[in-house]
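This part of the workshop introduces the protein records we will be handling. A record pairs a protein's sequence with a compact description of its fold. Comparing a sequence with its tokens is the quickest way to learn the format. The record below serves as our worked example for the rest of this section:
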Amino acid sequence: MEKHSQSYQLKKIIKQSAISVIAGTLLLMLSVGTIFWMSHVADEELETTTYLNQYRIGSKVLTYAVQTYAVTGKEEYYNDYMRELNEDKNRDIAWAGLEKNDIKSNEWALLKQIAELSDGLVPLEEEALALAQQGNTQEAMSYVFGEEYESTTQEINTLTDDAIRQIQARINKSKNGLRIFQVIIELFYISSFLYLVFQIWKIVKFSEKELLEPIVKVSDQMILLSEGHFHAELDMYEDESEVGKMVAAISLMKKNIVGMIREISSILEQMGGGDYCFEMEQDYVGEFGLIEESFEKISAKMRETLNTIREVSQQIDCGSEQLACAAVDLAEGSTEQAGKVSDLVTLVQNMYHSMVDSAKEAASTVALSTHAGEVLVTGNAKMQELKEAISEISKCSEEIGEIIGTIESIASETNLLSLNASIEAARAGEAGKGFAIVANQVKSLADESAKAAGETNKLIERTVLAVEKGITIADEAAESMDEVMKGAKQATEKMELTSQTLESDVQNMHSINENIIRVSEIVDNNSATSQETAAVSEEQKAQVESMVGLVEKFNI
């Protein structure tokens, strides 16, 4: 990597800054560790002093308890002594704590000496306790207030103070050394921090001068390039640095792109003029090689396509004339077909209207036939009534005949009575003349009655014969009416079937009429389309001829 490159210089500054940060971190950790160690030393000093004072307090509690018990002989002081000795055990606890601390050998010598002196007081204290229990307090006091006990107690206190002073002096010396070491570390830390600040300042300056300004210039240049301005000057120089190499790459890119644009413009202009025989001379590097390959493919494909278009256009030119002629024939045939279909539509419409009228007439005939049937039914009913009336007349004639017979019998008897009356009147002579006249009148009336009865009888016989003949005629008329009714019913049913058939035919003819009208519309449309096709074919023929002329202009 070149020493003048921005990456080398930036990495060098970053490396120095990283070393400064690491050194500062280590110094900070040492400073913090020193603080913790000073705190530990201070805690150890306090703890050791506390244990020594606790040892001294334990000794003083024992001394105070035994001396007070020796003076007073009270049991509670004895209990205090035994509690301290067996339960509280301040001296044992303090000694165990001192063993855990970092006590030097000379300090242990003093402590062991203190312990030996303390142990030397135990026999004196035991003697004093025993004497005090016996009530001999004077002699007990001599043990714990004697010169030996006092001097030993004083020596223990003196040695304890000496041990505390030695330990404090040693710890203070260590603390002073740690303080000096901490001050030195803090000075080094401040130096590393100032050096780091200096390195950061160098990074800022380097970034502004060596990175930011070139990046801004390159960014402005790239914006101009993105807008298509490839002739804009770049106020930077080429060198071995990254920015210099980037400037060289931009200059080379601009040169190559300008060359490619000029060549592509020239080729496109040549292609626009119809010349597809060209060669590309510019060096298309990297992904730009795809442009060269694409132009070569376009040239090959266009030559192939134009050859195909030329051949096809010639074939189309040959076929377009035939297509135009066929289209004209088709238009003429379609026009003639449209006329024939129009005549067929008129004929079918006339047939449809005729069938509609026939269907209406058939429906009217069915209605009349139905009405006639109903009238026949009524006439048949009336004929039955007439037949019954004639039968009734026949019966009445028979009864009248019987009455006439009775009248004839009466007339015969009346005639016989008139005869007898005439005989009796003749016998009576003159007196019977009036009665004879009456008898003659009665006889004349009887003769008239007999004569009338005879004529009536003949009339009744004729009536009976006429009635019988009328009954026969009525029977025959009824039978004829039945036949007529049956025929009328059959005729009516057939007329109804005929009417339904005509209605169905009318509907079918309506569908045929609509379909033919639709066919007529399609034929008219086809005729118009064929005429348009003929026109288009003529126009297409002209365009194909024009296209053949255009294709001939291409250089392939």
